[in-house]
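Sequence only, no structure available. Ideas?
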Amino acid sequence: MSFPNSLVTQVSLTISCTGLLKKDIASQSDPVVQVLLLENSATQSWKEQGRTEHIKNSSCPEFTKSIEVDYKFEEVQRIKFVVYDIDNLSTTLSDDDFLGQMECNLGQ
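Reply:
I predicted one. Tokens follow.
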């Protein structure tokens, strides 16, 4: 669906986590957050909007990289934040430890 420019604005999301699970034996988790928007509710198709930086050895990270997303005032937009523990140099998250996720409407 196309929206007039006046009904869309870009918002900047800053992300932090508290009390993340410890998945590593010798240290705290090394978290990164993946941010996704629901593109198609019928097929549950999500599109990645960005990722935070990778912070080493922290159960309560405060990420400095913000994620920019288009906020559409007249549309309900589902957003999902997925947290992973990064233990390798790969950019593929499927081989990293899943720590948790939360989902909400972008306007909440």
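The two ends are 22 Å apart (CA to CA).
Hope that gets you unstuck.
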